[in-house]
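Weekly structure sync, notes
Attendees: PL (lead), two postdocs, one rotation student
Agenda item 3: pending single-chain targets
PL asked that the sequence for the first pending target be pasted directly into the notes so everyone works from the same version. It is reproduced below exactly as submitted, 133 residues in total.
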Amino acid sequence: MKKIPFATAAVAIVVSLSGCASGPKNYSTVDELKSAYVQAGGSCSKGTVVDTSAITAASKDLTGLAGYSCTNDIGLFVFPSKKARDYFVDLINGAASASKTGIHMVLGEKWLIGGVTLDNKKFASALGGKAKY
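Predicted structure, written out during the meeting:
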């Protein structure tokens, strides 16, 4: 029986587990994002689909945007592209500056969760996004 040195075994374990680490995740539908948000501890049992027609009228880049409002404060959005997500973030930041309200966000490549009371650090880690305020 061949003995494997402890250091070699430890490295092998770390390498095999590194694939389990939470990294960037993509959600292609707002339902997938909602399910992941709820699984991560978010509350979204009495939400409503967001009518995005007025938002998408602002820019062709936003065509295909889907949204879900979990509460009066927390919104979930999935975008057709990263460019659309960035445009939407700019809209949110402009509205937040005008109202002097900070919006906490979790950003994925083509998705966003935002709200004034959102624990963005908790959900960024759980959902594979980046926390932004």
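Discussion points:
- DSSP finds five helices and six strands in the chain.
- The CA atoms of residues 82 and 109 lie 6 Å apart.
Action: rotation student to compare against the earlier draft before next sync.
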